[in-house]
Amino acid sequence: xxxxxxxxxxxxxxxxxxxxxxxxGNKAWRxxxxxxxxxxxxxxxxKEFNIASTTQVxxxxxxxxxxxxxxxxxxxxxxxxxxxxxxGRTYLNGQFLExxxxxxxxxxxxxxxxxx
Length: 116
Description:
- 8% of the residues lie in helices and 51% in strands.
- It has 116 residues and is mainly β.
- A six-stranded antiparallel barrel has the order 1-2-3-6-5-4.
- The radius of gyration is 15 Å and the shape is globular.
C-alpha cells in the first residue's frame, strides 16, 4: 500500500462531554457534541516525551488533523482501538493541528448519547 505524506491513517471522533450525577450519586458522562474526522497518527518525539515526563503527563501519541476541523473538543475516541483519549495539548503546525493524546479510563459505551 502506497502512503502519502500527511495522508489519513485513522478515523477518530472528537467529542465534548458534561458530567452529571445520577439519582444514586454515580458520575455519568453526557455527550454534548461530536464530530468524526480523519487524522494521521504518529509517535511523539523523544524531546516531547521528555518534556511530558517532567510535567507528569504521559502522551501516548499525537494525531494531526487539518486545523479547520478542530472544534475545541477535549476528548477523542479511536474506534479501531476502542479507547477514549484526552486531548492534553494542541500544536499548530502549518495547516495541520497536532493533538497530543493520553489514555483515559472513560469507556465509549458509558457515555450517554442523545436519545439514550
